[in-house]
């Protein structure tokens, strides 16, 4: 029996770096799971659109699809936008929406990977304060999740970890940087908790002007690809069970 197709659903952006990063991540996922069919669809700005991909799969007589939101937090897009698009899919498709990527220890590992790539070492942790900088949301649940990630990450040895947001919520990145300076951290690093470059990640970067270290976005880090496959596997099990596999 064929495995369900994995449809990665990205938000999309006018910034060409966004789509390029999404495609790089999908290539890594394919390399990690040979034989798994992985398609990419965008909610806005980029092509192919999610409806176009679903129509194409239906035309090929595909039956089972796991739709995976390329999102780090369960907020409006995961709760409303994506389910609305999937409800309009061709009726012949059996679609299961996977969980969003975060939170996950693998994503925390990816954040640390990016900080080390930016010049820090594990020996720097106790003297370095980290700003966990996310895009931001009006959803209280999403904000609470970011705050909890920051609290848990602090216990791995960093001097301090503070959440910050590029939009919708406070504090901003630059304010969190100054707070960590005031706490007495010898150095301050900003870790963007975002998947791909774009407008809000650029705002995070500007807010990091007074920091000592600015890490790259998570992008196609191997840990991120592993989370995608974990979410796919968790979602496809009920699909196969329903089919009697």
From TrEMBL:
User: Has UniProt tagged this entry with the keyword Heme?
Assistant: no
Gene Ontology terms for molecular function: lyase activity; metal ion binding
Q: Which domain of life is it from?
A: Bacteria
Kindly indicate whether the keyword Glycoprotein belongs to this entry.
no
Record CDD domains: CbiX_SirB_C (cd03414), CbiX_SirB_N (cd03416)
A Pfam family name for this chain? CbiX
UniProt keyword annotations, A-Z: Lyase, Metal-binding
Q: PANTHER family given for it?
A: FERROCHELATASE CHE1, SIROHYDROCHLORIN FERROCHELATASE, CHLOROPLASTIC
- Name of the protein described by the UniProt record: Sirohydrochlorin chelatase
